[in-house]
Amino acid sequence: MAVPSPSKSDMRTHALAERRAFARSLNASLRAELEAKLVPIVLPRLIGARIVAGYHPLKDEISPYPVLEALGNGQAAAFPWFAGRDSRMTFRQGPAVEPAPWGVLQPSADRPAVAPDIVLVPLVMADRGGVRIGHGKGHYDRALSHLKEASPILAIGLAWDMQISDRPIPADPWDMRLDAIATPTEWIDCE
């Protein structure tokens, strides 16, 4: 008898617990060291991008800030922005300084709305083909779909190494695949 595959909801629950345990096992120095290792892996892939969207990390998420702080002249950082809990996610030029509807920081409403060339995407887990499990609200899937309708953009997932699954994750029709994933130790081209 075949064992049924776990649902995406079950996978998310398990992956969130594992991410939480991993992040809590890191002291501040090791965490900063691992996050800094993203810079030489990601930064060369950002050459030519004018606007790079990041995110203000949740407690257990790997931070994009070392990458965003290393952006060159002529490049600007943007962050997700929500008018309200039910509104579509858009991007505004940083810094992220005010609480969003869920308490995470976002830019102030008076910052310019922008269309990023590259979006650094947080994740709960992902496979090497670019299928991502997020927190289940679909904000990034909808935002990436909308952005890709207007012009080509690159979506790069940022993750701790332990968040990458070697087994494929089942994709739903609305899932927007990542173009690449960066961890502190590797760059994964998702094809």
TrEMBL record:
It holds the Pfam family 5-FTHF_cyc-lig. ATP binds at K8, S9, D10, M11, R12, R132, I133, G134, H135, G136, K137, G138, H139, Y140. Keywords: ATP-binding, Ligase, Magnesium, Metal-binding, Nucleotide-binding. Substrate binds at E61. Its EC number is 6.3.3.2. It catalyses: (6S)-5-formyl-5,6,7,8-tetrahydrofolate + ATP = (6R)-5,10-methenyltetrahydrofolate + ADP + phosphate. GO terms for molecular function: 5-formyltetrahydrofolate cyclo-ligase activity; ATP binding; metal ion binding. It is an enzyme of class 6 (ligase). Its cofactor is Mg(2+). Transmembrane segments: none annotated. InterPro entries: FTHF_cligase, FTHF_cligase-like_sf, NagB/RpiA_transferase-like. One of its GO terms (biological process) is tetrahydrofolate interconversion. PANTHER family: 5-FORMYLTETRAHYDROFOLATE CYCLO-LIGASE, ATPASE INHIBITOR/5-FORMYLTETRAHYDROFOLATE CYCLO-LIGASE. NCBIfam families: MTHFS_bact. Belongs to the 5-formyltetrahydrofolate cyclo-ligase family. This is 5-formyltetrahydrofolate cyclo-ligase. It comes from Allosphingosinicella humi.
